[in-house]
């Protein structure tokens, strides 16, 4: 009997996370035009919905999700992150999504428990 565990079932699978995040952002923002007064609501909704979908996967991770929404107006954005973790079990991915008026950048960090 094979007791080995498939990494796809318990690991941090970037393609799976990316699909979830893109779907959440598309559902939340879609083709909406950038409206400053809605950014707080959009970012909160994206983060909370993403966390909900990620926890439903039932994988042994603690998740950290960040979201940035930036109007397309020629301004630059530079960001960096660094983590001290176990590369064999932990993971991260960043998804960049855009429409005609804005960029949305969502980062997800999965820390094995």
- Note the quaternary state here: single chain
Task: Say how many strands there are.
Answer: 3
> Residue ranges: pLDDT <50 for 5 or more in a row?
none
Q: How many angstroms does the end-to-end distance come to?
A: 26 Å
Overall spatial form: elongated
What does this structure look like?
The chain has 113 residues and is of the alpha+beta class. Helices cover 33% and strands 27% of the residues. The chain is built from three helices and three strands. The chain has helices at residues 7-10, 14-28, 39-56; strands at residues 61-71, 91-98, 102-112. Strands 1-3-2 form a three-stranded antiparallel β-sheet, covered by helices on one side. Helix 2 runs antiparallel to helix 3 (39-56). The radius of gyration is 16 Å and the shape is elongated. It starts with 6 loop residues before the first helix and ends with a strand. The mean pLDDT is 93.
Write the layout of secondary structure elements.
Layout: H1 7-10, H2 14-28, H3 39-56, E1 61-71, E2 91-98, E3 102-112
Antiparallel strand pairs: 1-3, 2-3
